[in-house]
Every structure is written in structure tokens, then in C-alpha cells.
Amino acid sequence: MTSILDKFSGNRIEVNEPAPRHLDPSDTGEATPASYSMEVKEVHKTFGSFKVLQGLNLNFQDNAITTVLGPSGTGKSVLIKHLVGLLEPDAGEVAIFGQDLWSMTEQERYDVRKKMGVLFQDGALFGSMNLFDNTAFPLRKHTDKHEDEIQDIVTRRLTEVGLERSWHKYPNEVSGGMRKRAGFARAMVMEPRIVFFDEPDSGLDPVRTSLLNDVILEMHAEHGGTYLLVTHDIRTARKVSDYVGLIWKGKTVHYGPAEEAFEHDDPFVRQFLSGESAGPLGMD
Ligand SMILES: Nc1ncnc2c1ncn2[C@@H]1O[C@H](COP(=O)(O)OP(=O)(O)OP(=O)(O)O)[C@@H](O)[C@H]1O
To answer: Which residue range is the domain that position 155 belongs to?
Structure first.
């Protein structure tokens, strides 16, 4: 255990030693399949006549933060829905910890999902519950933990996201950034091995985005696991990513360590990551 200064409250809090950001310091990004917590193999998905995923391949390292970037409408949210098992591929395979999601029973898929946490765009909080009860909700619904233990877990998670003094407030009484942090605390109470963030920065100003990114990095350093962020915000990607995947028109156009992605000389990668209007990426 070590003690860190909580930037929101000014208090010192005890945390576990940081988990390694990479599996291995000599890791070059060319991981063995065993180190992937999630694998997307040649996945196709069509809605009506619209081919959204067209043979998508993308793997996710455990104990790392991967950001998936790509133009609007390119299939990033559809990818997340496949990874959480809400959508079944028309062809191809989605494997979580080496197990094909669609070769398992409904119950097994449900059990896999219990290892996952999702931070939705708006935090997806219940308006009728205060932040404490929102955060406690998964524990009360899915576990038989005693209220004392629930109180302890929820207080720790709310402290980690800087909301320990706002536990009694309702979602409509707090800022968008606080709602996202409460949604994050709730996503973490079941100790997920995999956490998805669907555009965590949407609707936040740069300062609140930066604060949320700090919380994401601190949570990951403390708890480890696989974090997958979908975002359009290049600054967020630069700040939090260990790995970056770029998808376009339902296919992966780049995947690799973040530092490599931001120095890449492929015209598409450069254009997207620099936000330039000139380049291969058009409006269609
Ligand atoms: N259930 C569905 N039925 C029909 N079309 C869908 C469905 N889900 C997604 N689509 C379509 O698939 C395409 C990709 O959607 P998706 O939400 O994954 O894009 P995205 O990359 O996340 O975009 P954005 O960055 O704007 O959020 C869109 O054209 C969307 O309208």
C-alpha cells in the first residue's frame, strides 16, 4: 500500500501499488495471443444493406489502456457492443480471455459480462437516486454483500473519483464531469477486469476532460485490467493510451503502441491524429 494525495478532496488516501502499465517492460506491442484479454477476428456486421464492420481485426492487451479512434459512423460503438456481447457478428469471432463469446451458453456470456464495466456517454445514472445509491446499485442488484461492506466499497470508489463529499447529491445537482466520474465509480464497484469508455470526454470542457483522464489513469494504475476508450479527442488519446487502434470503414487501419501511432508516417494515420482537413480522409 502507498498513500497518494487526492486532488479533489486534498486528503491523502491509501492505494495499492500501481499495476504495471505494460505486461512487460520489453514489450514492443507484438504480444503473444495469451496476453490479449479481447480479440476481434475478421468480424463482419451488416445492418440492412449497410456493411458496418467489414472484416475487423483488433486485439486488446490486458493491463493496458487502448484507445480506438476513427471518423464518425465508422463502427466504434458497434465494436463495443460486439465486445460486451450485445451484438452477434454475422461472421468472424469475438473472444474474451480466449473464449469465443458466441460458442458459450447465455449463462456463460452473462458471467463474462459480469467481469466488464461500462462508462456510458452521459454516465447513465438513475435520476431518482443520489450518487451513493447509483454507485451501490450493481452491488445491491448482483451480490448479497452486507450493507456495511457496500458502504465501504462505495465510499472507496467515490473517493477515488473525487466525489466522497458529494455522495448525497442527485445527478441533476452535479456537473457533467461529476456525473461521468460517478458513472465511472459505479462501473468499478464490481471490480471489472475490462472497462469500456464510450466517448468519456463528450460534452466536457478541456479542464474537466483532463481531470477525468487523470482519474482514468489513476484507477488503471491502481486496479489494472483492460481499458478500452472510444474517443474523437486526440488529446485524450495522447494522454491515456498505451495502445492506439484506428478504424475506418469497418476495418483496422492501424494498431500499435501509442508513441508509435503518433509518429506514424502513413497518410491516413497522420491526418487523423493531427486533425488535418487535407489527406486521404474525406467527408464520406
Ligand atoms: N442497430 C443498428 N441498426 C442499424 N444501423 C446501425 C445500428 N447500430 C449502428 N448502426 C449504424 O452503423 C454505423 C456505425 O455506427 P457507430 O455508432 O458504431 O459509429 P461510431 O464510429 O461509434 O460513430 P460516432 O463516432 O459518431 O459515435 C452508423 O451508420 C449507424 O447508423
So the answer is: 130-187
pLDDT tens-digit map of 113-143: 988 999 877 668 999 999 999 999 999 998 9
Note whether residue 154 is domain-resident.
Answer: yes
Using the mean position of ligand 1's atoms as its centre, give its distance from the Cα of residue 28 in Å. Answer: 32
Going from the Cα of 45 to the center of ligand 1, the distance in angstroms, rounded, reads 11
Question: Ligand 1 in contact with 246 (CB < 6 A)?
Answer: no
Nearest CA, atom 27, ligand 1: 72
Q: Model pTM?
A: 0.83
Pairing of the two strands 2-5 and 243-248 = unpaired
* Rounded CA separation 150/16 (Å): 19
Distance 281 CA to ligand 1 centre (A): 18
Q: At what angle are helices 147-160 and 206-223 packed, to 10 degrees?
A: 130
Please check whether residue 67 is in contact with residue 57, taking contact to mean a CB–CB distance below 8 angstroms: no
Residue whose C-alpha cell reads 450485445 in the numeric block: 86
Number of CB atoms found within 10 A of residue 104's CB: 15
User: DSSP character for 236?
Assistant: H
Does residue 137 lie within any of the structural domains? Answer: yes
Residue 262 lies in a domain: no
Q: What is the number of domains present in the chain? A: 1
